[in-house]
TrEMBL record:
Name of this protein: Translational regulator CsrA
Keyword match Hydrolase: no
Transmembrane intervals: none
GO biological process terms on file: bacterial-type flagellum organization; mRNA catabolic process; negative regulation of translational initiation; regulation of bacterial-type flagellum assembly; regulation of carbohydrate metabolic process
PANTHER family: CARBON STORAGE REGULATOR
Subcellular location(s) per record: Cytoplasm
Source species: Bacillus methanolicus (strain MGA3 / ATCC 53907)
């Protein structure tokens, strides 16, 4: 993990297109501004993990559906 110190209104760059700016610091809370191309999804980590979990559950559900349909058609030949 790279750890950087930044002050309010200072930024870091990720590649050529993503800029993260420190907007405010209030106690233990830091507000970030993120400038990135529209095709890049930006989520808080807990939301990102929730989306990944839902996607994995959907894949499992689709696999079960395909297995069930396969079994159904094999039984009804």
């Amino acid at each position: 993990m790279l750890v950087l110190s930044r002050k309010i209104k200072e930024s870091i760059m990720i590649g050529d297109e993503i800029e993260i700016t420190i907007v405010a610091v209030d106690g233990d809370q830091v507000k970030l501004g993120i400038t990135a191309p529209k095709n890049i999804d930006i989520h808080r980590k807990e939301i990102y993990l929730s989306i990944q979990n839902e996607n994995n559950e959907a894949i499992k559900s689709e696999a079960n559906l395909i297995d069930n349909l396969s079994t159904f058609f094999k039984q009804n030949k």
